[in-house]
Amino acid sequence: MSEQRRPYRSRRPWLEFTFLTPDGLRVDVNLVADTGCPFDFILCPELYDLLVRADLGIVPKTNFGDLPAGLVRMYMPEVGFVESARALRSDLVGAVLEREHPTFVGMVGLPILRLGEYGGNATDFWFRYPPPTPIAP
Asked: Which terminus of the chain is less hemmed in, N or C, by CB atoms within 10 Å?
């Protein structure tokens, strides 16, 4: 099992994710972990434009307005994430998060966090993948 444990930044939980660009370059980024976000990822425009492999159209009426969606490639073989996911592009989310901490370039939402086990305490946020296997009674 692999685990990321991160101290909060600007009172926000965050994780490091690695993606592949369409030409195969690895990109490591810091994303705010938002359990209230119903989307895989919401990314700042620059990162979205760098990573998107295929256009998936517009997602209407999100909390941030109508947002373009595209397919991105997670590439974290050490934790078992080598798969495609949907990302949305938002100027507003990118700007707000960057003001909170200069390394934040987007957020990871509940659909991705639910692939593993996540949690936090007063000082840290963690994510484990794969989640521990429960012991049968």
From this structure: C
Provide CB contacts within 8 A for 93, sequence distance 6+: 42, 43, 44, 64, 106, 107
**How many domains does the chain contain in total?**
1
- 66/86 Cα distance (integer angstroms): 15
Distance CA 69, CA 67 (A): 6
Write out pLDDT tens, residues 101-115.
Answer: 999 999 999 999 998
pTM for the full model?
0.90
Structural domain contains residue 136 = no
Domain that holds residue 101: 10-129
Instruction: Report which of 87, 104, 5 is spatially closest to residue 48, judged by C-alpha positions.
Output: 87
Convert the pLDDT of each residue in 15-34 to its tens digit.
999 999 999 999 999 999 99
Query: Do 32 and 104 contact (CB within 8 A), yes or no?
Result: yes
Q: Count the neighbouring beta carbons within 10 Å of the beta carbon of residue 50.
A: 17
